[in-house]
Design brief:
The protein contains 13 helices and no strands. The longest helix is centred in the C-terminal third of the chain and has 25 residues. The radius of gyration is 17 Å and the shape is globular. The relative contact order is 0.21.
Length: 256
């Protein structure tokens, strides 16, 4: 039996190899800088395969990768503050998932490209929320992040920008972020499974692409400390920008 024999019927060996390549690059960015994997992966991967398939694929990979981090995050996080922001995700994730399940693939790709471009601008701005705590604001940020996650697994920048701007210890902020995304990913898994987005195809692809993504994360982590973080972050931003441009549906006739 060859790799081609176990692939989903709508996914060729060439597409699977292309997804692996994209996963390695996005995993490397994640391993070194701690961010950027979904912002690189989704625009490119959704131009190679169906957005619903690659969103589910990325969710499964990230969900499995995040599980070992949750016990430590549970001990160190401000669980009360995190619970408030998770309430927003409880609403935002199903709404985003609904749109992913009903929109036409090309429409979804346009939305993903616009979302990622906006989130890249947010990252480049260095935005951090430094105002007062308000429950409604926390729920709103959680809802926005959950919606982005449900639609395209790109909910990182809003929640990271919010938590890192709070006057709390960095170790607590990181634990809050990890715990939030553990809950958000769980909501996404339930929503995706309910709407049929978690399929045999996405699970089979996750077994193929997941190890390559993990190798990319490990490779990126090994580079940390050996290269300038400022330079590597600039490279990540450049890769995200190129992913947005290359993933635009209007370029299908030229690039694909």
């Amino acid at each position: 039996m060859t790799l081609a024999d176990v692939l989903p019927k709508d996914v060729s060996l060439t597409v699977a190899m292309a997804l692996c390549a994209v996963a390695f690059v996005s995993g490397t960015a994640r391993g070194f800088s701690g961010f950027g994997s979904a912002l690189i992966f989704m625009p490119l991967a959704s131009s190679i395969a169906a957005p619903r398939l690659v969103a589910a694929l990325l969710l499964v990979i990230d969900f499995v990768a995040a599980l070992p981090l949750l016990p430590d995050a549970w001990r160190k996080a401000d669980r009360k503050a995190t619970a408030v922001i998770v309430l927003g995700a409880l609403v935002g994730v199903p709404v985003g998932t609904y749109f992913l399940s009903v929109l036409e693939p090309v429409t979804t790709r346009w939305i993903i490209s616009c979302f990622v471009a906006a989130l890249l601008l947010l990252l480049l701005s260095g935005w951090r929320y430094r105002g007062k705590d308000h429950a409604w604001l926390s729920v709103g940020i959680g809802g926005l992040s959950g919606f982005c996650s449900g639609l395209a697994q790109t909910g990182g920048p809003p929640i990271v920008g919010y938590w890192l701007g709070r006057p709390i210890a960095p170790i607590v902020a990181r634990a809050n972020i990890v715990l939030f995304f553990g809950a958000s990913d769980f909501f996404s898994m339930v929503s995706y499974a309910t709407t049929g987005l978690i399929s045999r195809e996405s699970l089979v692809l996750s077994l193929i692409v997941g190890p390559v993504y993990a190798i990319g994360v490990a490779f990126g982590a090994s580079l940390f400390g050996r290269a300038s973080e400022k330079v590597f972050r600039a490279i990540c931003y450049g890769l995200i920008a190129m992913a947005v441009i290359a993933g635009l549906p209007v370029l299908d006739g030229i690039l694909r």
